[in-house]
Amino acid sequence: MAIGDLGQFGVWRYYGGFTPQDAQDLEGLGYGTLWLGGSPPADLPVIESLLEATESITVATSIVNIWTAPAKQVAESFHRIEARFPSRFLLGLGAGHPEHQGEYRKPYDALVEYFDELDAAGVPKERRALAALGPRVLGLAAERSAGALPYNVTPEHTARARALLGEGVLLATEHKVVLDDDPVRARTTARPRVEFYLDLQNYVSNLRRLGFTDDDLAKPGSDRLIDALVAHGEADSVVDRLSAHRAAGADHVVIQVLSDEAATLRTLAPLLAK
């Protein structure tokens, strides 16, 4: 899978949130990839129905959780999908959150072991990518996969990640969107989704590395934090914010719309295509 196969912009929803008709509609609007969020089960049952309904769009997981989806079973699912739809599926995987796991070893070591199992099962390096925030895991993403899938980050993080990854390594960055020109209302819409991550150590640690303070990170999150993590305003302003990730070095930007998704994606599509 070439980096360009993802397109410049894709759409994130929780796993199971896309229907085949949604996939057709988003492909028609020009979005390059559907990102299936949450922790999809190892048998990946939804993906083939989305690929079957479309012509060229890529489907990716964001992310398969290594603690809940055994590598051997994930590899079997990968090969099943690949046999029917060559080069249209990207396996995104990650270590999840220690707060949400009953058993949690050092994530770096567990990721290395998981990659070893995928290698043994014949899942190509270039067809998998890794959720990564900090320098060490970004380095692992570059070494053992097609590249990195940062989530809940800013364009400043994208620039740092690109400098660490180097050129020719996939960098697909998620950013949230509220299409609303009233900043108070937009922040009110956005804040619950951002607040959720303020209980998760890996995200909080990464936001501290980006310069956010205790005041910013105290729940429910400062206006400064919301504005950094959620693009809001009129359509042109939102597009500028999403495009800032591209300017900072992202190959692909994953759009997560927090309200009025269908209308928002229709409005943004022609502007993103310019």
From TrEMBL:
Protein name per Swiss-Prot or TrEMBL: LLM class F420-dependent oxidoreductase
SUPFAM superfamilies, per database record: Bacterial luciferase-like
Ranges of residues in domain Luciferase-like: 23-252
Top-level taxon: Bacteria
NCBIfam families, A to Z: F420_MSMEG_4141
Organism: Nocardia vinacea
One Pfam family per UniProt: Bac_luciferase
Record-linked InterPro entries: Bact_Lucif_Oxidored (IPR050766), Lucif-like_OxRdatse_MSMEG_4141 (IPR019922), Luciferase-like_dom (IPR011251), Luciferase-like_sf (IPR036661)
